[in-house]
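Weekly structure sync, notes
Attendees: PL, DS, HV (note-taker this week)

Item 1: MTMR5 protein
DS walked through the input record. Source organism listed as Cochlearius cochlearius. Sequence as pasted into the shared doc:
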Amino acid sequence: VLYLFCAALTEHKILFLSSSYQRLTDACRALLALMFPLKYSFTYVPILPAQLLEVLSTPTPFIIGVHSIFQSETQELLDVVIADLDGGTVNVPEYVHISLLPEPLLQQTREALSMVLDPELEVADLAFPPSTISASSLKMQDKEIRAVFLRLFAQLLQGYRWCLHIIRIHPEPVIRFHKVR
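Item 1 (cont.): predicted structure, written out as tokens:
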């Protein structure tokens, strides 16, 4: 999930494959939901019809879902991150470099997601584990996952004001983003 999240943030092409149309739609929508408060502004097609498979060769980034019976047509795509939802794998081609999160944030996010998704795993090696560890309800788990990613965005974007540069030549000041800082 973190690979797909980082691929979407860095504007890569993402293709979901599944034999279930519901799973395709859910996966595409979930990836967009994890990007909140950012908004994905590229091509987004949760279920691509068979007649439009040539869209996968577009040079622009996308998030597209395709039924797995068309998997053979997707084999020649060299710059597309393919997530097989039925097999549970993510294939990143060797020509594609996905920039992951900075290291302290990546490890913190993994640990936080692990605590939400499998709380028993976190305390399995403790000599004296807590007596009550229970998994959250699905609704609460959804909120906890959203909170993990919202906290990640807050940590990533903190201090952005240091990169703003005010130009006071004009009658009204102009704010620019200073890339060097």
